[in-house]
Amino acid sequence: MERRVQERQEVSLTVEILDPPNLGKLKLRTRDLSKQGAFLLLKKELCLPVGRVVSLRMPGILWGEEISTISARIVRVTEEGMALQFLDFDF
Length: 91
Hints:
The chain is an all-beta fold. It has a single domain, classed as predicted glycosyltransferase like domains (Thrombin, subunit H, Beta Barrel). It contains no helices and seven strands. It has a six-stranded antiparallel barrel. It comes from Sulfuricaulis limicola. This is PilZ domain-containing protein. GO terms for molecular function: cyclic-di-GMP binding.
């Protein structure tokens, strides 16, 4: 069952996870992106648990900024990576 409200577009961007700090600054690539979320490519064993909230730094192409720092919740983990839902902005 598809639950997305916004259609995701295939796009490869570098995203940096800033928080939780015990990870250090982790740089990942997106597989797809929408105004409400993104899928980050990462081996499953390195993914954070579903429900964890993280801070991300990414190019601000959706928001008209050079770089955006936003909060996101991990909503799904697969063999390919993790899906995130953006939390702290409004369009």
